[in-house]
Automatic annotation (TrEMBL):
InterPro entries: DH_E1, PDH_E1_Alpha_Subunit, Pyrv_DH_E1_asu_subgrp-y, THDP-binding
Keywords on record: Oxidoreductase, Pyruvate, Thiamine pyrophosphate
Function: The pyruvate dehydrogenase complex catalyzes the overall conversion of pyruvate to acetyl-CoA and CO(2).
The organism of origin for this protein: Lyophyllum shimeji (Hon-shimeji)
NCBIfam families, alphabetized: PDH_E1_alph_y (TIGR03182)
Listed EC numbers: 1.2.4.1
Name of the encoding gene: PDA1
Gene3D superfamilies on file: 3.40.50.970
Keyword Oxidoreductase part of the UniProt annotation: yes
Name of the protein in its database record: Pyruvate dehydrogenase E1 component subunit alpha
Region Disordered: start-end pairs: 24-43
Length: 399
């Protein structure tokens, strides 16, 4: 199958002309027959070119997975895609307004990340935040309700697409690159309070040239923060290809003194192994920050207002869908390794569709926020001032 990048794994800045990172979704090999038990681990081996490294070793290629884990990841990837497809339809029906950025095609990153971290780790990201919000403790109806501006939304209909939070998910952020220094600050708090957890701060290739990103790199390295900076390189920042916007498109090498790892972001197992490696680096080994670059691809445009075909060809998108889809790659593993049958997976597909369809109906039935809701959720509960002024001097709300 075709690949997206241009070089292979190396321990330093790679030389020109060496092999490309593998970005196919289905090149992991079974090492031995899976056990009967759904919870007993069994070994699989990643493609040798699943990783490239900068100033660090690459993760082990042999990975342990279980049947339960593979099926859970498949169900979650299908659920995330169905949810984003529903958001697409609701936007086109003009029920969702404003900005809306979908992550269709990038499901291996969000689901793989979630399976490689623990409950009290922290995640913060940019525009394509819907899957992370669900996986970090939210719900499909909570995300769709928020997009529709309804009270059932995770921010009670007052935040919208890029402002959805959970106790361990610090939201999508609308200012390009701004979540990266905020993520470093969250990691600083973890270290200050001696918490054995990491913060994963995600940004796109389009945000990679922001000055605040490099400032956050510098501070995180100076203070040895447990921060994993994650570049979701889907090859196009808005409508501009990475090659046109960045003089160095090997984003995993751009942390200067911070080691980096480039990862096949279309293979869920490679993603999972990379996140496990990064968490061990930052938390268990206390080596400070690490930079991950997931080479992935978005099927749609940058946002719903972007058709996504003026700066790339329809043939390119169709080729990626048909040859490197992350869900289809995991489906092949599950079927060929005897984890489940095609009929079993079709039932999971139906269940995901039914869950999203029900969530759409519940979200649409939920009322819009009321005028009094303008005065709520401004301050952290218990810290509100005695009164709050509105737009006009006479408009005062007393708590």
């Amino acid at each position: 199958m075709a690949s997206l990048a241009s070089l292979r794994l190396a321990r330093r800045l790679p030389l020109r002309g060496v092999r490309a990172i593998q970005t196919s979704a289905d090149t992991t090999q079974l090492q031995s027959a899976p056990p009967e038990s759904n919870s007993q681990p069994f070994p699989v081996k990643l493609h040798p070119d699943s990783f490239r490294s900068y100033q660090c070793d690459v993760p082990e290629l042999e990975v342990e997975v279980t049947k339960d884990q593979l099926l859970t990841m498949y169900r979650q990837m299908q659920l995330m895609r169905r949810m984003e497809m529903a958001a697409d339809a609701l936007y086109k029906a003009k029920l969702i307004r404003g900005f809306c950025h979908l992550a269709i095609g990038q499901e291996a990153v969000s689901v793989g990340l979630e399976h490689g971290i623990v409950k009290d780790d922290r995640v913060i990201t940019a525009y394509r935040c819907h899957p992370f919000a669900v996986l970090r403790g939210g719900s499909v109806v909570g995300v769709l309700g928020e997009l529709l501006g309804r009270q059932v939304g995770m921010s009670h209909g007052k935040g919208g697409s890029m402002h959805i939070f959970t106790p361990s998910f610090f939201g999508g952020n609308g200012i390009v690159g701004a979540q990266v220094p905020v993520g470093a600050g969250v990691a600083f708090a973890q270290k200050y309070m001696d918490q054995k957890h990491a913060t994963f701060a995600l940004y796109g290739d389009g945000a990679s040239n922001q000055g605040q990103v490099f400032e956050a790199f510098n501070m995180a390295k100076l203070w040895n923060l447990p921060t994993v900076f994650v570049c979701e390189n889907n090859k196009y920042g808005m409508g501009t290809s990475a090659e046109r916007s960045s003089s160095n498109t090997e984003y995993f090498t751009r942390g200067d003194k911070i080691p980096g790892l480039q990862v096949n972001g279309m293979d869920i197992i490679a993603t999972l192994q990379a996140v496990r490696y990064a968490r061990k680096w930052a938390v268990d080994d206390q080596k400070g920050p690490l930079l991950l670059e997931f080479v992935t691809y978005r099927y749609g445009g940058h946002s719903m207002s972007d058709p996504g075909t003026t700066y790339r060809t329809r043939e390119e998108v169709q080729r990626m869908r048909s040859t490197q889809d992350p869900i289809r790659g995991l489906q092949r593993y599950i079927e060929e390794w005897g984890v489940a049958t095609e009929q079993d997976l079709k039932q999971l597909d139906k269940d995901a569709k039914a869950e999203v369809d029900a969530a759409v109906q519940e979200a649409k039935a939920s009322p819009e926020p009321q005028t009094k809701d303008l005065w709520t959720d401004i301050y952290y509960k218990g810290t509100e001032p005695p009164f709050m002024r509105g737009r006009e001097r006479e408009e005062v709300h007393r708590y």
